[in-house]
UniProtKB/TrEMBL annotation, chain A:
Annotated keywords: Ribonucleoprotein, Ribosomal protein
Keyword Ribosomal protein: yes
Organism from which the protein derives: Sphagnum jensenii
This protein's name: 50S ribosomal protein L19, chloroplastic
Stored Pfam families: Ribosomal_L19
Cited NCBIfam families: rplS_bact
The family this protein is said to belong to: Belongs to the bacterial ribosomal protein bL19 family.
TrEMBL record, chain B:
Record lineage: Eukaryota, Viridiplantae, Streptophyta, Embryophyta, Bryophyta
Top-level taxon of the source organism: Eukaryota
Family note: Belongs to the universal ribosomal protein uL14 family.
Keywords: Ribonucleoprotein, Ribosomal protein, RNA-binding
One Pfam match: Ribosomal_L14
InterPro entries: Ribosomal_uL14, Ribosomal_uL14_bac-type, Ribosomal_uL14_sf
Protein name stated in the entry: 50S ribosomal protein L14, chloroplastic
Species this protein is from: Sphagnum jensenii
NCBIfam families for the chain: rplN_bact (TIGR01067)
């Protein structure tokens, strides 16, 4: 661009215009007239692109604005040859300097919204996949919000030998949140023996979860029930 | 994870109350027994006037462990005690006629179907 300016300074007006037209920064001279007419259209097209593409828009595409500025000034130059050379150079240099500001204005979202470039892309992809899996599982069947202290009744399908639906009951003593592998732990006294079972919340084997009772507890994990009397674990 | 010197409760009415594991069967120098494994145990405590007496060496199958049993579908089961059920001979026929307490479903795969059918609860 600087070489072009120097070239402009040394040559005549007409020569300068032709040089400017041929130069790479003001490429596509055929479209000059059209661009003058439709500046708003081109900028609106640019804004319709998604935000992540706007943020990393290449610098060459912003020369649309340069086209507009220079094409208007070129038109003025052609119409009024007494237009000052210095003014033209100033406008071009202003266009060059304003490339960055124009780019920022054109595709900058509102000042309060910050877009973050995710450098750890694989981790982000895994989190997205996990969220999608959870949402998909929630759409298939309604899973209630199980909290520790709830007495729940499960209907679990046993696919191994006989496709029988067994009913299991117990008090939830722990819940571990891990996205799609969220698990919860159930405790119950069966035939005089305490039994604890761990289930994944989104397991397809669990046909139904029903909350029977909610006990008031002041802990997230109720492992103290193992040491307490059997009556507290029975339900 | 039953190993030698582990005390186990007895889950049937064969006459014993507590057993102590003296050998884990399966391979030489095998360290631990899980649910469904056969162990050789000695009777440490027995009910009086029953066929099984104290310090009698018997074979038993482990039916409950405090160590959780992990299944391939992501669930796991653990019990509050270690318990075994007394078998009498090589074929695995049980000595007692009743089973006390719940048992795990994995026993069915280890050809202990009689125990599973007698159990009050199979998990």
């Amino acid at each position: 661009m600087q070489t072009m300016l120097r070239a402009m300074a040394s040559t005549s007006l007409r020569q300068m215009v032709s040089v400017a037209l041929k130069s790479r920064a003001l490429a596509v001279p055929v479209k000059l007239q059209m661009e003058v007419a439709s500046p708003l259209l081109s900028s609106s097209v640019a804004l319709q692109q998604p935000w992540w593409r706007q943020a990393c828009k290449p610098i060459w595409s912003s020369t649309v604005q340069v086209h507009l500025v220079s094409s208007t000034t070129l038109k003025l130059l052609l119409q009024k040859p007494q237009f000052c050379l210095r003014a033209f150079c100033a406008s071009v240099s202003a266009a060059i300097s304003s490339v960055h500001t124009l780019e920022a204005d054109e595709d900058a979202p509102p000042a309060t919204l910050k877009t973050k470039k995710l450098t750890k892309s694989v981790k982000h992809i895994m989190e997205l996949l996990d969220k999608e899996a959870v949402e998909a599982a929630n759409k298939v069947k309604v899973i209630p919000n199980i909290k520790p202290g709830n007495v729940v009744q499960l209907k679990v399908e046993v696919p191994e030998n006989k496709r029988r639906v067994s009913v299991l009951r117990g008090i939830v003593i722990a819940r571990r949140n891990a996205g799609s592998h969220t698990t919860f732990r159930i405790r119950r006294m069966i035939a005089g023996v305490g039994v604890e079972m761990v289930f994944p919340l989104y397991s397809p084997n669990i046909k139904e979860i029903k909350i029977l009772d909610k006990r008031r507890v002041r802990r997230a994990k109720l492992y103290y029930l193992r040491d307490k009397i059997a009556r507290l674990s029975s339900c | 994870m039953i190993q030698t010197q582990t005390y186990l409760n007895v889950a049937d009415n064969s006459g014993a109350r507590k057993l102590m594991c003296i050998r884990v069967l399966g391979a030489s120098n095998r360290k631990y027994a899980h649910i469904g494994d056969v162990i050789i145990a000695v009777v440490k405590e027995a009910i009086p006037n029953m066929p099984l007496k104290k310090s009698e060496v018997v074979r038993a199958v482990v039916v409950r462990t405090c160590k959780e049993l992990k299944r391939k579908n992501g669930t796991s089961v653990q019990f509050d005690d270690n318990a075994a059920r007394v078998v009498i001979n090589q074929e695995g026929n049980p000595k007692g006629t009743r089973v006390f307490g719940p048992v795990a479903r994995e026993l069915r795969e280890s050809d202990f179907t009689k125990i599973v059918s007698l159990a009050p609860e199979v998990l």
